[in-house]
């Protein structure tokens, strides 16, 4: 039995067209892009064509795209560059960010005496913009604001245009982790004024280990990985040519069919949310993740207290459903994710499970998941 795969926020299946494009590179292109001979130039041309193609979808100059090994590296690079190259001494971020941002910020705090402060969230999980404005006005220390576009666990979203306006009004730099939204939402960097955005190919049917950092063309920053002059001195190391070609192909497919994919995924998410409400009375959605203005690929459900709660993700796996939830501690109780805790949604006696969807998810996957959830959370017979 193959699993119904509902963990697409963790990673997505690679599109066959992407596999084909990468295979062709592995079979026919063996030069190092830094070599000046013909095979090297062929590899270099593929890297640059990929960069131009990605930039054209985002409306930015190709030189603003710096290829990386994915989202974690790009997030680290943005934060380290803000401190080392732009003179940032204060980072305003959130405890609900991906750990790449949480840890890169706290590392800057510890090793470089940067002040790290956390913005508050509203009860529904959204960033409290009034608190952000208050924090920005507190001091004129050079500041980076790092807030993700779409939260990977509960799907709350930040309005990037508003973020840009609020930060620019106070002269702050802006980084947004766009790993979960890139390839799922249009982003127009011709009109959006931000400093750093991050991308990971494996979140939209590209290969793992490939992504990029967008760097605003007005900035001059240093590389984080040194040792080679690749990526205009921003990222040393021989380029992952096949990965970059796969990333660009996945980007093309995502942007060309975005509206169609979105409509398909939204319909499945609605089916899942309605189905859960029908089969488990009392289920609620963390961060109101069933709302239409939340990340449309993610639904995070909190189930009523149940003896199977702590083991639910494991039991669903046995039923052939791949989804994700908080890690279990040695006592078997759910520890919960740092995101749910930061947003105040964690309740130790209630299981929270994230179901996440892609263009390859089917109605039958949803129906299988609902049946399995119904079994796992079946009402417990009370002793007579
Ligand atoms: C919001 C967010 N940022 C960063 C990352 C890290 O990306 P990568 O797996 O490419 O390092 C992830 C992946 O889980 C993510 O969801």
How is this structure best described in words?
The chain is α/β, with parallel strands linked by helices and about 375 residues long. It folds into 2 domains: about 15-255, Aspartate Aminotransferase, domain 2; about 260-375, Alpha-Beta Complex (Aspartate Aminotransferase, domain 1), CATH 3.90.1150. Helix content is about 40%, strand content about 10%. The chain is built from 11 helices and 13 strands. The strands form 3 sheets. It has a 7-stranded mixed beta sheet, with helices on both faces. A 4-stranded antiparallel beta sheet has the order 9-10-13-12, covered by helices on one side. A two-stranded parallel sheet has the order 1-11. Helix 1 runs antiparallel to helix 7, helix 2 runs parallel beside helix 7 and helix 8 (about 260-280) runs parallel beside helix 11 (about 365-375). It is globular and about 80 Å long. Mean pLDDT is about 95; it is low at about 325-335. It binds pyridoxal-5'-phosphate. Pyridoxal-5'-phosphate binds near residues 75, 152, 177 and 200. Pyridoxal-5'-phosphate binds next to helix 3.
How are the SSEs placed, and which strands pair?
Blueprint: E1 4-5, H1 16-28, H2 38-58, E2 65-68, H3 71-84, E3 90-93, H4 99-112, E4 115-118, H5 129-138, E5 143-146, H6 160-169, E6 173-176, E7 196-200, E8 211-215, H7 241-256, H8 258-279, E9 284-285, E10 298-302, H9 312-318, E11 321-322, E12 324-325, H10 338-342, E13 352-356, H11 363-376
Parallel strand pairs: 1-11, 3-4, 3-5, 5-6, 6-7
Antiparallel strand pairs: 2-8, 7-8, 9-10, 10-13, 12-13
This protein binds pyridoxal-5'-phosphate.
